[in-house]
Amino acid sequence: MLKKSMNELIEIINNNLDGIIKSSPLNTKLEESMQYSLDAGGKRIRPVLVLLTLEVLNENYKKGLQIALALEMIHTYSLIHDDLPAMDNDDFRRGKLTNHKVYGEWKAILAGDALLTKAFELIANDKNLEAETKVKVISRLAHDSGNLGMVGGQTLDMDSENTPIELHTLEQIHKAKTGALLKFSILSAADIANVNDETLNTLDCFSEHLGLMFQIKDDLLDVYGDEKKLGKKVGSDVENHKSTYVSLLGKSGAEEKLKYHKDAAIDAVNQLKSQYDVEPLLEIVDLFYSRDH
């Protein structure tokens, strides 16, 4: 089986997201608002990780396509809500006006709600997966996007504004807020491939370090990044009085922590080298480490 490159997988994801939200007889423009944020672009790193991990595990990426699309819907809903005035109060996302700036706050909230529920509909209706696998994946996604995952992490993040916190609390925030869905990206592919417990635990360890890498790099870019490349203003964490890896450890300390998690992620994934071609996952580690947006 000829495997797809990362760019090919991004194109597949974008093509399938294009027009995925159909108009409804209710005529409310809710669907237009949902599609607007899906069309805003981005790195598509979470859905790509689903498909890429499947290929590493010698499975056809098509088995995970609906899950990948559902995951991007949940990620997009979280961004719509994060940008709201009650949270981060951002005017731009990925170089475009945020959803509430175009459609108003109440419709942005409902667009996010609708994307969340649409995601589970996609997986439930997926004809490529056995019922048992779908239940496992839906359960994992509900956990990782809910009060013990992304939403819980966002709550702890909001509670921690204007409050000095320790590094342990910051890591708790990011393991849940950012890391949970990144972990889902990889472990949902492991669910589909029905890997053994040893492989699952190795991928779990790998994905945890990957998630922390992603957030530490985000914290560095929020202070030292290029606004044109980021598509949004830098310094929002400082404005919102949030503790970050940079504010707690300084630039060099944050960079050291980033390298620590990079090395740990590489060590974890290299444990699978005797069974699988892990080069695509090593490329992801390098991408997370060196990205500038």
UniProtKB/TrEMBL annotation:
Catalytic activity line of the entry: isopentenyl diphosphate + (2E)-geranyl diphosphate = (2E,6E)-farnesyl diphosphate + diphosphate
Domain of life: Bacteria
EC number assigned by the record: 2.5.1.10
One Gene Ontology molecular-function label: metal ion binding
Gene3D superfamilies xref list: Farnesyl Diphosphate Synthase
Cofactors, names only: Mg(2+)
Family annotation (InterPro entries): Isoprenoid_synthase_dom_sf, Polyprenyl_synt, Polyprenyl_synt_CS, Prenyl_diphosphate_synthase
Gene Ontology cellular-component terms listed: cytoplasm
Keywords linked to the UniProt accession: Isoprene biosynthesis, Magnesium, Metal-binding, Transferase
Coiled-coil blocks: none
Keyword check for Transferase: yes
Pfam families listed in its UniProt record: polyprenyl_synt
Gene Ontology biological-process annotations: terpenoid biosynthetic process
NCBIfam families, per database record: FPPsyn
Entry-linked PANTHER family: FARNESYL DIPHOSPHATE SYNTHASE
Family listed: Belongs to the FPP/GGPP synthase family.
UniProt name for this protein: Farnesyl diphosphate synthase
Provenance organism: Staphylococcus hominis
Lineage of the organism: Bacteria, Bacillati, Bacillota, Bacilli, Bacillales
